[in-house]
Amino acid sequence: MPGPDTHVPDASAPDVSAPDAGAAAGPGGRRPTGRDVARLAGVSQATVSLVFSGRDAGHRVSDATRERIRDAARTLGYRPQAAGRQLRLGRSGMILLAVPNLLGPFFGRVLTGVHEEAGRRGLAVVVSSGWDGDTLADAAATGRFDGLLLCSPDDSQLGDLPADTPAVYLDADPARYPDRPTVELDVAGGMRAAVAHLAALGHRRIGHLRSTLSAYTFRMRQAAFESAAAELEVLEVGVPLNEGAPAAREVAYGLLARADRPRAVICDDDVVASGLYQAAAELGLRIPGDVSVIGIDNIPVAEQLAPPLTTVDLPGEALGRTGVTALAALLQGRPAPAAAPLATTLVVRSSTAPAA
């Protein structure tokens, strides 16, 4: 991949960027330009051009200066003209975010973070689901996208991308993609915290509604659960996660209807937990009086359930933002910055109680 363009724009050259049609008026009622942004931010027009062209990293533009320029642009309602930028850089200005399921609420959180960071960098985002290796290879080969973000891939279905395709893997196995940047979530730490919470409440016999998907994130959850619950009595049942709450309700009903049902259950995500709530209500069981419940994800519905769900917060927005930052570095010909696994947090609400 070619390195970043080291040419510094001539500050006296005409401003080749233009605002969007909906941009606010600049001085004198005209539309704002790059010169207006430079004046408000107290920098040269050349620096403004570097920031909006994505070439600022190679010219020692500080984070503070970059943010001051973007703040000035927001104040004025200025955005660089996409077509001109694309012609200069030979790029489409678009990145592809591939997720397993567009309807999955957690992926909505990821998309929020991706949109936020991509917007800061002048990139547009296209979202796709139901993809496989061939589909992604075709997307990379057409040149429609500058780079790819692949979230929670199923390793058994995903082939290798062309080596020259800028790509970042989110919530993925770094050992599976050693030559690609990966951004991980500490899902294992979150699962350990969930088991420890129930054990601290005196639960010694717990259920686990585990995903039957083979993606890395669920393998990590399963391994962490088995390790953390090694001294406990466990009842595990597989759930077809992609089939939503109705399938989870059916599986949960079978678990809770057992004569030896567990008095606490950990679910591999919050959608599964909502299915368990439905099953408990149908069986006349109270949460948490008859069964304590913990989910994973902390999607918006977690607070809306009655009672509100104790769950492991997976920072999807931070995952998306960090992924775009890594991809932007690749697009500028730089190595992606190293990123430690993003911390997860157990959010304790009202769905868990001491063992009877």
Descriptive report:
There is one protein chain. By secondary structure, the chain is of the alpha/beta class. It has three domains: 1-88, 434 Repressor (Amino-terminal Domain) (Orthogonal Bundle), CATH 1.10.260.40; 89-184 and 316-341, 3-Layer(aba) Sandwich (Rossmann fold); 187-314, Response regulator (Rossmann fold). Helices cover 39% and strands 15% of the residues. It has a six-stranded mixed beta sheet, sandwiched between helices. α8 (216-228) links the parallel β6 (205-211) and β7 (233-239). The longest helix is centred in the N-terminal third of the chain and has 16 residues, at 105-120. It is elongated and about 75 Å long. It comes from Kitasatospora cinereorecta. Residues 32-89 form the HTH lacI-type domain.
